[in-house]
Amino acid sequence: MSKYIFVTGGVVSSVGKGIAVASIGTILKSRGLSVSVQKLDPYLNVDPGTMSPYQHGEVFVTQDGAETDLDLGNYERFIDVNLTQDSNVTSGQIYSSVISKERRGDFLGGTIQVVPHVTNEIKSRFKKLAEKSKADVILIEVGGTVGDIEGLPFLEAIRQMRKDAGRDNVLYIHVTLLPYLKSSQELKTKPTQHSVNELRKIGIQPDVIICRSDYPIPDSLRDKISLFCDVEKEAVIPLPTVSTVYEVPLVLEEKKLGQLIIDRLALDVKQTDLKEWRSLITRLKEPHEPVNIALVGKYVELEDAYYSVRESLKHAAIQHNRDLNIIWVQSENLKKPEEVDSLLKTAQGIIVPGGFGIRGIEGMVQAARYARVNKIPYLGLCLGMQVMVIEFARYAFNSDNPNSTEFDPATEYPVIDLMSDQRAIAGMGHTMRLGNYPCKLVKGTHAGGAYGEELIQERHRHRYEFNNNFRQSLQGKGLVLSGLSPDGNLVEICEVVDHPWMVACQFHPEFGSRPNQPHPLFRDFIGAAKDILREGAQPELPLTN
Ligand code: GLN
Questions:
Q1: Where are the alpha helices (H) located in 166-218, listed in sequence order?
Q2: Is 508 labeled as catalytic in the residue annotation?
């Protein structure tokens, strides 16, 4: 039977609760336990797939095609597990399921209420994950902060779990912030006391409090929190801000959180083995020569919009013993050739990640042109592949007209077009080509060499695709189709000949990278970029458009 750890947040959001949960997963897995994770999101959207990246950051896609919260990406990277749609539960999903059951008549004339109907539905999701994953420990993060109105049904459901699963099988961890007051030069515990009080009002007494802080936490404050919040001192875990999130498992381990969880839940474990993780952190923290990568996108004001891309670049840089320096470039600012040159002139590699809609597209095309003409390594992800194909077609057909029908429905050269099975779809929620699909690689290409195998599976999230009517003409000009769906119908990867490394894929490799195992395309992209010298690089051809 699985044991449950529920993690709530107090005081403010964005203190790193997701990283704390992922890190707890790392330290439990390092003891030989199997771990699965679930994120509860109190908003009413069914999933974040329809939300703007500015609202929500990246949409993380699981192998089975669920569009989920970006915390799932951290869980996968830290715990090295592949999660499924069962790992992200939203209020939208819960209510829509309860209401459709009511419409079907499943409740036999009963009055449908938050308690017990909504809370039962929530608990059924915990149990479903436990049954399906058969994990020793199920970690469940409640999104938002204690005190939020919309989070109450989730808190009530996790409270009931102590009785449902048995007292010895459930642990509550509360993650709070100790704010620092500059004037009095001290950290304050009162907000933590208040948020623990909020939890207690609901009937939850935390077993562990993780205290986030930007400064070292004196022992006396642990005593104080222990006294006021009724938690043993050793269960008040200080978590000061560290230079890399990947260090958090080591901090928690050092504070003996792993042992505490094992003891409280009476888990049967092996000796902890964090050797590999420790050596990763050592390499990450050693100073190295930088590698400058320009990330050209339209949501760059919010780094979270490219969370997995940034992490995948980091993983690849660690492997090559480089310090990653991302130059965040707002694609709308790439208009005139001087602008393109001034913003990209120090870039040793250019990456154009995914995105939707026309804003900023022309700037991304300019970035792809700059990479092609100046022979700067380029990695295109989903939209970044479509942009690379548009740019290549403009060069090949000597015309400014090639485009995607997403941006110019009447273009004379629709080199990227809506997929045929997308044409009849009207709704926006969960209607893209989503999740894992196979791709066959062509030997002798950059992509084939990177993976070193013939058949791969990668995660997708798109509506548009390479238009096969242009295959021949573009291949004739030097576009290499290096990955195709096994039936040969869909172009999944393409690259440019006579270029050090210009590769783009229709899928999202960023969702599959791990700190210790960088994704092959990211690894080879950084490998190509690290040796590029950029002093005084100038575009050889005048830039049009
Ligand atoms: N907008 C493009 C499409 O739908 C690209 C999507 C993406 O980058 N995820 O095909």
A1: 190-202
A2: yes
Asked if the 3-280 domain carries CATH number 3.40.50.620, the reply is: no
Does the structure show a pLDDT above 60 at 541? no
- Say how far apart CA 131 and CA 528 lie, in whole Å: 45
* CATH number for the domain whose boundaries are 287-529: 3.40.50.880
Cβ contacts of 168 within 8 Å, gap of 6 or more: 265, 266
Kindly state the tokens that stand for 277: 């993780």
Delimit the domains of the chain by residue range: 3-280, 287-529
In the reported structure, the alpha carbon of residue 429 is separated from the centroid of ligand 1 by a whole-number distance in angstroms of: 14
pLDDT for the residue 535: 58
Site of tokens 């609760």: 17
Q: Mean pLDDT of all residues in the chain?
A: 95
Q: What is the C-alpha to C-alpha distance for residues 185 and 321, in angstroms, rounded to an integer?
A: 38
Q: Is 478 exposed, middle or buried (0-12, 13-18, 19+ CB in 10 A)?
A: middle
Cα–ligand 1 centroid distance for 382 (angstroms): 6
What does the block give as tokens for 50? Answer: 């329809």
Neighbours of 377 (CB within 10 A): 26
User: What pairing do the DSSP bridges indicate for beta strands 479-484 and 433-441?
Assistant: antiparallel
Residue 7 C-alpha to ligand 1 middle, in angstroms? 34
pLDDT digits (tens, 9 = 90+) for 216-236: 999 999 999 999 999 999 999
Which tens digits make up the pLDDT trace of 326-351? 999 999 999 999 999 999 999 999 99
For the segment 28-41, the average pLDDT, to the nearest whole number, is 97
Angle at 83 between CA 82 and CA 86, to 5 degrees: 160
Q: Per-residue pLDDT tens for 12-34?
A: 888 899 999 999 999 999 999 99
Q: What is the pLDDT of residue 218?
A: 94
Asked whether this chain's domains 3-280 and 287-529 adopt the same fold, the reply is yes
Residues with C-beta less than 6 Å from any ligand 1 atom: 354-356, 382-383, 406, 461-464
How far out from the chain centre does Cα 68 lie? 9
